[in-house]
Specification:
With 127 residues, the chain is of the alpha+beta class. It has helices at 85-92, 95-126; strands spanning 27-33, 39-45, 53-55, 62-67, 70-71. The model has no long low-confidence stretch (mean pLDDT 87). The chain binds zinc ion.
């Protein structure tokens, strides 16, 4: 390396502080089990009060702390069954209203298909 080049180091990734004389805090690993059967392992400070539930790392459902492999509370206890799209739709419109909308859309669809078919026929006839 020539004398004129500037020496530097990447920002953010390295620390100039050494780890000498630093006492690391003791940590313990705890496992959480979600209703889908995923196990998330998390490190906590050994002195921390460990929460009984945690969001699953794989599916984001509520996972329950395992102590000696046994969940501390029933898994999936506070899970609500999500409403389906159909149920949400029925909160806004009645089946009769939906039938009218469907009929309108079918008329539009058939009209578009018919005009596309006629355009294709006209193009074929003029070719
Ligand atoms: Zn999960």
């Amino acid at each position: 390396m020539s004398q004129s080049s500037m020496r530097g180091m990447r920002l953010g990734t390295q620390s100039l502080e050494s780890e000498r004389n630093v006492a690391f805090e003791a940590r313990t690993v705890h496992s959480y089990l979600c209703p889908q059967g995923h196990i998330s392992e998390l490190k906590f400070s050994a002195t921390a009060e460990v929460p009984e539930t945690w969001e699953c790392k794989s599916c984001a459902r509520t996972a329950v702390l395992l102590i000696d492999g046994v969940p501390v509370e029933p898994i999936g206890k506070d899970e609500k069954t999500p409403r389906s799209h159909w149920e949400m739709l029925l909160e806004r419109r009645t089946v009769d209203e939906l039938q009218i909308l469907l009929d309108e859309q079918l008329v539009n669809l058939r009209a578009r298909r018919e005009s596309a078919r006629l355009a294709a026929e006209a193009a074929k006839a003029s070719a």
